[in-house]
Amino acid sequence: MGTGRLHFCMGMLALLAIFSVAGPAPVAGVDQAQVPPLQVPVDQLDGIQRATIILDSYSYTPNHLIIQSGKPVELLLTSITTITPHNFLLKNEAAGLSIERDVGSGRTVTVQFTAMKPGIYPFHCDKKLLFFPSHQEKGMEGTLEVR
Ligand SMILES: [Cu+2]
């Protein structure tokens, strides 16, 4: 009896030790705010401003890109999800921007455009499961800053 209880206690201590080492689960989205804006570089050979945006559930990384107006842009939208489909919507009539692309799980889609008007243009994913918050509401949004 006595040793049985002792073993039980040792077991509980071991469990406690495992939990304290593992620590609390990381909170999704915390890292997102810490990613600095990406100043998209201009390719020296072809003059194209090229950048990759990683799509995950539910984020774009980076979520703030800075580009120059009047120069062509090429964005590679790369999904790293295994099931959930996402998309990329950036619409602003006044600026002549109308981008709407679906990005299936694990896919990479290329978007080409030239922004002529400096400004701050938000983009987001409008996917949504019935009765659930939209991906945008879960944080899947970002900013294209045109200078
Ligand atoms: Cu989405």
Q: Please, could you describe this protein's structure?
A:
This protein has 147 residues and is mainly beta. The protein has a single domain, classed as Sandwich (Immunoglobulin-like). Helix content is 14%, strand content 39%. The relative contact order is 0.17. Residues 8-30 have low confidence and may be disordered. The chain binds copper (II) ion.
How is this structure best summarized?
The protein is mainly beta and 147 residues long.
Bin the strand percentage: 35-45%
State the low-pLDDT regions, or none: 8-30
CATH fold-level label? Immunoglobulin-like
Principal-axes geometry comes out as globular
Oligomer description: single chain
Level-2 CATH architecture: Sandwich
Give a quick set of tags describing it.
147 residues, mainly beta, Immunoglobulin-like, four-stranded mixed beta sheet, 14% helix, 39% strand, globular, binds copper (II) ion
Describe the secondary-structure layout.
Elements: H1 2-22, E1 38-39, E2 49-56, E3 59-61, E4 64-67, E5 72-79, E6 86-92, E7 97-103, E8 108-114, E9 119-124, E10 141-146
Parallel strand pairs: 1-4, 2-5, 4-10
Antiparallel strand pairs: 2-3, 5-8, 6-7, 9-10
Residues 58, 86, 125, 127, 135, 140 line the site of copper (II) ion (CU).
